[in-house]
Amino acid sequence: MTMHQTLSPMPLTAPPKATRVQFMAEDDKAMLRAVRDLTKGLGEAKPGIYWPDMLLSAGVGYAGIAIAILSGSLVVKIVAGLVAALALYRALMFIHELTHIHRAALPGFRTGWNLLVGIPLLTPSFMYEGVHTIHHKRTQYGTVEDPEYLPLALMKPWSLPLFVIVAILAPVALIVRAAVLVPLGAVIPAVRTFTWERFSALSINPEFRRRPPEGEFIGRVRWQEAGVFVWSWLLIGSTQVIGWQPLATALVILSLTALLNQLRTLVAHLWENEGEAMTVTAQFLDSVNVPPPGVAAEIWAPVGLRYHALHHLMPSMPYHDLPEAHRRLARELGTGSTYDGANHPGMAVLVGRIAKSTMGKRAA
Question: Where would I find the Fatty acid desaturase domain in this sequence (predicted)?
């Protein structure tokens, strides 16, 4: 045996990542303490970041739609449409921030977002407020009561393409809801109840039924519903003046936006829970971070959503502070830690993992 052979290091393999199953009964309390201690000094929502980001995203998106409608060049239409879809996607994702930030943190931002983005895209903030927070409740995440959870990894293979493709119909469905169901519901209580329970929440769980609004939330729902009703009929009425082509172009662009969001939703979690209540750590490990160095995730998971698992540990952390929070935790806790278990390399790997799991179900 040569000296080189004697001193050659044994091949190293990366330790297996922590999984949800390991922490179903008990939290990793050391990690949770580290999250609390290492993120001190973060957490203040900054108007100087929120407002310019939202306004620029919305402005670029609407400009892109206008160019796609008015241009005579097919190439320009396609490029403008893609830019518009991505920009409006980013602008729309601020609805997620609105559900978590304190109402006093960003004066006027909720109203401004609804007027500039939520109502024009027929997705006002009430469709997420009071719904998304259920997804973060300790005893309801991943259960049948969670409006934003389906065990997709445990379902049949055909469920994945259906889950993604159905999103293409979202813009048309939103017009029907605002223009037809909302006014009918104003005069027919049964339609109003049906529309509220089934079509007034950004939910992916078909079993979810939304409870009636209460208190001051009722007033917010009413003015936002009035806004989408008026806007939907302005869109429909515009076809009698300028034809169907502008509206059809906008709907195609918004269908792409909805498709992007559905793809992001598909990889926001591992979807491996069968309805059991989970610890906070188990919820974290069933969720997904796609941290740098890759830049693609900043496009398909904007406004902090590339740190979705970390968000489940700190739901009220503003999106602009999540990158720094992740850097601190990754540096301190290191590779192989429980925290590292929620970090994944990208969308393709995650889709492949979920698809492989569903194929296993077919074989079973």
Answer: 79-335
The domain locations on the chain are 45-363
Amino acid letter for position 128: Y
Q: Which ranges of 177-314 would DSSP assign to H, the alpha helix?
A: 182-187, 189-199, 217-242, 245-266, 280-285, 297-300, 308-313
Task: Convert 81-115 to b/e letters by CB count within 10 Å (16 or more is b).
Answer: bebbbbbbbbbbbbbbbbbbbeeebbeebbebbbe
Q: Residues 150-208: pLDDT tens digits?
A: 999 999 999 999 999 999 999 999 999 999 999 999 999 999 999 999 999 999 999 99
> Taking the alpha carbons of 198, 93, 142, 297 in that order, is the dihedral positive or negative?
positive
Give the pTM: 0.92
Identify the residue whose tokens are 């968000």.
311
DSSP 86-127: HHHHHHHTHHHHHTTS-TTTSTTHHHHHIIIIITTTT--GGG
